[in-house]
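Let us practice reading a record.
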Amino acid sequence: MINADPHELQKFSELAHRWWDPNAEFKPLHELNPVRLDWIDALAHLPGKRALDIGCGGGILSESMAVRGAKVKGVDLSSSALGVADLHSLESGVEVEYEEIAAEALAAREPGSYDVVTCMEMLEHVPDPAGIVQACATLVKPGGWVFFSTLNRNAKAYLFAVIGAEYIARMLPRGTHDYARFIKPSELAQFVRSAQLDIVEIKGITYRPLSKRFGLSDDSSINYLMACRRVA
């Protein structure tokens, strides 16, 4: 069985045509992308690296890693999102290879093939996040980097990421997130260690409403990023 929720795939597929509109539903991703890109690049040094973006959607992170000098492949299970990603790649002239394939299937086909693997804002949308983490660990080369981002599961995260972002500030469409699928850092850490990855760094993501800017902090109580390396 494919590790995906059909409802989640349909939800994002229906919004696919708006992926690259910086003022539409994916505006937060456009605003957040430079922050997470700089963080990934500072640790993994993207130029010349072979990078894989799992759950790439319309290709926002995939293209930006390619601009930084990585050879990038993006995979997703939404054909609509991948169609938008392919079209935008042609329009921008930024070369990215896209494929509709599950992370687990790609891991079986191309183990140990990538210097950098990213899986951003995806784990909280799948039935078995531990399976995705294991696939990422299989895909990365020994000594390579794996990056995750997801949402913590606590009252504060529910208040800000669901009630605040979806219903009050309307930064995201209602129903974007299912709180029951949020993942505590301790839970993700367990998945990571079970997959034979070492945790290097955990960073929280902050949002400043007045300046409308994202940033990194040591507060992982809502959104957070985790950088890992495969044990050689």
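A brief commentary: The two ends are 30 Å apart (CA to CA).
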